[in-house]
Write the structure tokens for this entry.
Amino acid sequence: MKSADGQFGLAIVLMFALSVTVIYAGVAAIIGAFLAGMGLAESSSRRVHDLTQGVTELLVPFFLAGIGLHVDLTAFADWPTAVLALAALVAAFVSKLLGRGLGAYRLGRPDAMRIGFVMIPRGEVGVIVAQIGASLGAIGDQVFAVVVFMSVATTLLAPPLLRVAFRDSPRPPFRGIAVMP
């Protein structure tokens, strides 16, 4: 098991094994996958990380699209649900922008704004938790629709905001951010 491909296979087996184990313990499968990732993150080779990234890029869109197909769009015909969706979008936008932007304010206002904008589309785990809650009957169709709407809307808002934030940047953006011309 010294090859990177063997390590990758072992990591996948461990991820599924821990996911199944935590399901039997009464916890969501994502917790087991998270634990496997935490346990192997520091000891895995660069090749394992690259293989994992490839699998993620292949499967995550299908997973999220599958969750999105369960959204009942008629939930937004109800006025209070539509208002709640807009309020959740504003709250997600402002809290993520301020939370990350204020933490990076020592870098200067432009970079703090850029970091805040970069972090706006982080809602995948919220969608997964909402899906688990909906499958258990803990949340209704309206709340599930609001969470999915908020996640999709923040993801769609980020690229235009980043384009504006980096428009006047005379230097390459800080490490970890790629900007489209």
Remarks:
- The chain has seven helices and no strands.
- The two ends are 44 Å apart (CA to CA).
